[in-house]
Design a protein that fits this description.
Blueprint: H1 33-47, H2 52-78, H3 90-111, H4 115-131, H5 135-144
């Protein structure tokens, strides 16, 4: 069966650059990611009807809901529900993936006030394990070639 809509190409970083993962970095485009995560965490705490362990568990469970919305958007973008047809765009899929990432970061912040540090250390470990000693060069090489289909 042929794919009715091609999967879009990922956005490419400029050659020779890697995004900064430091928790204190804030580029104009990110608007202070960790400041936003802290603000959302505080807002949720203020407006939550539960607290403590129950609030943390519900924030972790919220990830499942958000992942389901990604699946719904992919099905809608590919028109795989014959009853509904094409109901979403690949931009919708991207937005839903952002919701998953943000929900995960807020859940992490609910687990520890040092979420930025924990996340940065974890990304560094995964990159070192997956990409080896020359993680930056391997990342640039991978971004330079289009993904295989």
């Amino acid at each position: 069966m042929s794919d009715p809509m091609p999967i879009p190409m990922p956005i490419q970083s400029p050659p020779g650059t890697l995004p900064s993962l430091s928790p204190s970095s804030s580029s104009p485009s990110s608007g202070g990611l960790w400041d936003s995560v802290d603000g959302l965490h505080a807002w949720l705490n203020t407006h939550s009807t539960v607290d403590g362990r129950e609030a943390l568990l519900l924030r972790v469970l919220k990830l499942s809901e958000e992942v389901g919305e990604v699946a719904q958007a992919v099905i809608g973008a590919t028109g795989q529900n014959p009853r509904k047809g094409t109901t979403h765009s690949w931009d919708d899929v991207g937005a839903e993936l952002c919701d998953v990432a943000l929900t995960a970061l807020v859940a992490l912040r609910s687990l520890t006030p040092d979420a930025g540090e924990v996340f940065t250390r974890h990304v560094a470990k995964v990159a070192a394990r997956s990409l080896g000693g020359d993680a930056g060069a391997a990342g640039q090489e991978r971004r330079a070639a289009p993904p295989s289909r």
